[in-house]
């Protein structure tokens, strides 16, 4: 059997705590996946430092049958929801290719017992799929008998249709029978948002990441804004993520030559122009029709890493094709109820060229995000309300395993965050705790954090405390929603400028010169509040020597 190696970064989320772990994974194509932890990233929520690293054992992930045929039919993750999946490449039934059906006929199939829709000129009988549609039965019934191309492509990766049974495709619509497109009448809400869009400054006029957030609230649909912005019901952890950054202050070094410098570095063995990455966040198409493609292009343009969400709204092929030559992409995965589905997906992203995998493990429980659910309810006003209304988050997570344990993954310890579990500590606090209590961990593994990072100064605080890179989620979603690729690029430019300035003011001309003692808790640094130093162990990492500054 072949043996393939994947360099894996894991987004570990466990016990109301969260971390991202970089691993070198050896995937044994026969029946086991072996892991070997290489790095940790504390995500939105943070792990107890002593629990960050799991046993450095290798663990078989059993019953995984990885054959070429399984992964060839793997669709994009959002379509890959634990339902039987049918490859688009499979031959369509002959009758479907031949049959031209009039629009008038389609319009007759509008009930839960007999439901047809048109998508990109093809007609699908989706009666049997209605009950298991992740977005709910009503979402499709509203489109029954109509051309649903627009709403479908706005919310779904194009290969979502391969989730439908083959026989669902029953023919093509006779184009001569289609009515002339109706002029769209905007609702009051849509008019308000359109007016705001006209007023909105260009991307290059945005000066802070928060400017994108302000405009995102004005111009995004209710569903998009509420889903992107939502956190746990009480918002405690979300606020805490932000507030943590104001608890740490800089101790600048001055009178050093700062005329040259650079933000270049590497993490996970990937050379980058600066140590930030686009955190994996779902459903970018809710904000912009090109979805995650904008993020891929902006990341490629500026030489940073993008982590693709398992629930991306573009297909994997679309995103890997949007790359520049040699552009590194990493992929985030949730463990599927069907373990072999996850294994096939891993094989697929490895084959496409992903440099690392982020493995999210903190979604064993649902998260109460009222804002997301209300946003959905507002957007579907007028339609019969479902008995149990779901937000976008819940709708797209149905396939995730709820029974994942250490026997699936025994090499990691950790958790998610402001969005997932309430009352979890802020990643920055955990990073500081790790630096204080287990500085040796930074020598063994790469640590990354995300959650609440909104400025270059935030980035620099995390780097100085020992993070190899930091991730940003919402700022990229907001900027994508307001300005598409230009917005995502602008976020990177703003961060670059702020990181460079902060580093100069701190007296660090390279990332390697950032030291833990340059950051510490606010107030006088005495007693228990004293600055922290990296352990005096030799090596070439930026944080492995007691600073002589
Ligand atoms: C075939 C015609 C389909 C139509 C007309 C359709 C329509 C919709 C609509 C209107 C929503 C939004 C629901 C809301 O905002 O409350 C939705 C959500 C969703 N659909 Fe579909 N869908 C179709 C097929 C599929 C297929 C084949 C899949 C594959 C698994 C799928 C997966 C999802 C998911 C994951 C969501 C949740 C995202 C969200 O709530 O925004 N859909 N769908
Ligand atoms: C709208 C949204 C969707 C997200 N989707 C995912 C996801 O699909 N997978 C995942 O591992 N994390 C997901 N996250 C979490 C992010 O990876 C990241 O941890 C978080 O956004 C960082 O916090 P920040 O948004 O304050 O920067 C999502 C976050 C948001 C806001």
From TrEMBL:
Query: What is the required cofactor set for this protein?
Result: FMN
Domain named FMN hydroxy acid dehydrogenase is located at 201-524
Using the record's annotation, list all stretches that form the Cytochrome b5 heme-binding domain. Answer: 98-174
InterPro entries, alphabetically?
Aldolase_TIM, Cyt_B5-like_heme/steroid-bd, Cyt_B5-like_heme/steroid_sf, Cyt_B5_heme-BS, FMN-dep_DH, FMN_HAD, FMN_hydac_DH_AS
Q: Which UniProt keywords apply?
A: Heme, Iron, Metal-binding, Oxidoreductase
Q: Which GO terms describe its molecular function?
A: heme binding; L-lactate dehydrogenase (cytochrome) activity; metal ion binding
Report if keyword Membrane is assigned.
no
Which is a GO BP term held by this UniProt record?
Answer: lactate metabolic process
Kindly give the PROSITE patterns that the UniProt entry links to this protein.
Answer: CYTOCHROME_B5_1 (PS00191), CYTOCHROME_B5_2 (PS50255), FMN_HYDROXY_ACID_DH_1 (PS00557), FMN_HYDROXY_ACID_DH_2 (PS51349)
The answer to keyword Heme applying to this record is: yes
| PANTHER family for the chain | L-LACTATE DEHYDROGENASE (CYTOCHROME B2), S -2-HYDROXY-ACID OXIDASE-RELATED
Q: What is this protein called?
A: Uncharacterized protein
Source organism: Neoarthrinium moseri
């Amino acid at each position: 059997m072949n043996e393939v190696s994947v360099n894996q970064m894991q987004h570990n989320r466990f016990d109301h705590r969260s971390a991202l772990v970089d691993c070198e994974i050896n995937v044994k194509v026969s029946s086991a996946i072996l892991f070997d932890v290489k790095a940790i990233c504390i995500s939105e929520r943070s792990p107890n430092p002593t629990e960050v690293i799991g046993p450095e054992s290798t663990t078989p992930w059993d019953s995984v049958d990885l054959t070429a045929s399984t992964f060839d039919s793997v669709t994009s993750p959002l379509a890959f929801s634990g339902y039987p999946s049918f490859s688009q490449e499979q031959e369509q039934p002959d009758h479907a290719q031949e049959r031209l059906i009039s629009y008038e006929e389609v319009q007759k199939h509008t009930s839960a017992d007999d439901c047809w829709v048109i998508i990109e000129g093809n007609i699908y009988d989706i009666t049997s799929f209605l009950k298991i549609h992740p977005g709910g039965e009503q979402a499709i019934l509203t489109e029954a008998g109509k051309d649903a191309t627009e709403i479908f492509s706005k919310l779904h990766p194009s290969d979502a249709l391969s989730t439908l049974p083959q026989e669902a495709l029953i023919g093509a619509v006779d184009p001569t029978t289609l009515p002339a497109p109706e002029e769209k009448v905007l609702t009051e809400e849509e008019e308000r948002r359109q007016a705001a869009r006209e007023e909105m400054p260009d991307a290059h006029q945005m000066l802070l990441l928060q400017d994108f957030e302000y405009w995102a609230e004005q111009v995004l649909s209710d569903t998009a804004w509420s889903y992107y912005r939502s956190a746990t019901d009480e918002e405690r952890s979300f606020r805490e993520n932000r507030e943590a950054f104001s608890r740490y202050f800089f101790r600048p070094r001055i009178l050093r030559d700062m005329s040259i410098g650079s933000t270049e570095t590497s993490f996970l063995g990937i050379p980058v122009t600066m140590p930030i990455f686009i955190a994996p966040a779902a459903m970018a198409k809710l904000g912009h029709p090109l979805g995650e493609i904008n993020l891929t292009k902006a990341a490629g343009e500026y030489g940073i890493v993008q982590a693709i969400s398992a629930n991306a709204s573009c297909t994997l092929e679309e995103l890997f094709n949007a790359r520049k030559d040699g552009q590194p992409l990493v992929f985030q995965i949730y463990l599927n109820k069907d373990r072999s589905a996850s294994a096939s997906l891993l094989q697929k992203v490895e084959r496409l060229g992903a440099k690392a995998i982020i493995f999210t493990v903190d979604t064993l429980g649902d998260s109460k995000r009222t804002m997301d659910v209300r946003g959905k309810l507002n957007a579907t006003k007028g339609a019969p309300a479902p008995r149990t209304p779901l937000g976008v988050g819940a709708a797209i997570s149905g396939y995730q395993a709820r029974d994942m344990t250490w026997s699936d993954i025994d090499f990691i310890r950790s958790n998610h965050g402001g969005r997932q579990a309430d009352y979890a500590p802020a990643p920055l606090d955990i990073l500081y705790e790790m630096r204080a209590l287990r500085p040796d961990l930074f020598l063994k593994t790469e640590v990354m954090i995300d959650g609440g990072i909104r400025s270059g100064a935030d980035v620099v605080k995390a780097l100085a405390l020992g993070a190899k890179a930091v991730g940003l989620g919402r700022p990229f979603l907001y900027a994508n929603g307001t300005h598409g690729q230009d917005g995502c690029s602008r976020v990177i430019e703003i961060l670059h400028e702020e990181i460079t300035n902060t580093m100069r003011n701190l007296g660090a001309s390279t990332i390697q010169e950032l030291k833990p003692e340059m950051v510490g808790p606010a107030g006088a640094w005495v007693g228990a509040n004293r600055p922290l130093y990296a352990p005096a162990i030799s090596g070439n990492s930026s944080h492995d020597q007691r600073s002589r500054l």
